[in-house]
Automatic annotation (TrEMBL):
Protein name, UniProt field: Protein GID8 homolog isoform X1
Taxonomic placement: Eukaryota, Viridiplantae, Streptophyta, Embryophyta, Tracheophyta
Cited InterPro entries: CRA_dom, CTLH/CRA, CTLH_C, LisH, Ubq-SigPath_Reg
PROSITE patterns xref list: CTLH, LISH
Membrane-spanning segments: none
Gene name of this polypeptide: LOC105056487
């Protein structure tokens, strides 16, 4: 991202100046932006990386055809990965586990934390459905033995089982476990594990670049007044506050 490098360059050039803030005009800022050359191929790779990592199969295929950018992973495996993710997000955890094992049984065999979280999600779904006896039996047979071997697993299990002690589980101290965000968290963890097993980065590069931009702007704020991006969703550059 060219803007990040411009900001970092400005930081270096201001280091030796006085403590008073330097004012960088919009014209000067835009002139520096134009001086930075970014290849279209690199931008296309960045977009493809995001689509592949996040699992937008159809969009990735269309972008491949339109831009000529080849993904660094077989798009067919994306379909399988998204089927796993969708199963977790819809609460069909048992189905998700079977799909993961079909993809690569080593994923769960070598990742006990992930397997525990999937089984924990199964327990949450049983509690959500009001299957109290089945939930207790499942917790005792599948999760308790793992909790005895790992203190953090035991603590998570205790929080989950505690849901059964409340009539209004959604408003109890651990009600967030029943929130959709818990499913999304587990699905994201599975997605990352599958990507890692395929020797692919588990996180897209674009969000990291945006974090770098925010960090660089915060650093430059202490030394200069300059056109900055306040809303990342629009990427509009606003005039410096003087």
């Amino acid at each position: 991202m060219s803007l990040s490098w411009i900001i970092l360059g400005q930081l270096d050039s201001i280091e030796s100046m006085s403590t008073s803030k330097k004012v960088i005009t919009r014209d000067e800022w835009e002139r520096k932006l134009k001086d930075v050359k970014i290849r279209k191929e690199d931008m296309n790779k960045l977009v493809m990386n995001f689509l592949v990592t996040e699992g937008y199969v159809e969009a990735a295929e269309k972008f491949r055809i339109e831009s000529g950018t080849e993904p660094d992973i077989d798009l067919a495996t994306m379909t399988d990965r998204m089927a796993v993710k969708k199963a977790v997000q819809s609460g069909n955890v048992k189905d998700a586990i079977e799909k993961v094992n079909d993809l690569n049984p080593m994923i769960l065999d070598t990742n006990p934390r992930l397997y525990f979280h999937l089984q924990q999600q199964r327990l949450i779904e049983l509690i959500r459905s009001g299957k109290v006896e089945e939930a207790l039996e499942f917790a005792q047979e599948e999760l308790a033995p793992r909790g005895e071997e790992n203190q953090s697993f035991l603590e998570e299990l205790e929080r989950t089982v505690a849901l059964l002690a409340f009539e209004d589980v959604k408003n109890c101290p651990y009600g967030e476990l029943l929130d959709v965000s818990q499913r999304l968290k587990t699905a994201s963890e599975v997605n990352a594990a599958i990507l890692t097993s395929q020797s692919h980065e588990k996180d897209p590069k674009l969000p990291r670049l945006l974090k770098m931009l925010v960090w660089a702007q915060n650093q430059l704020d202490e030394k200069a007044a300059y056109p900055r991006i306040n809303d990342l969703s629009t990427a509009m550059i606003e005039d410096p506050a003087i």
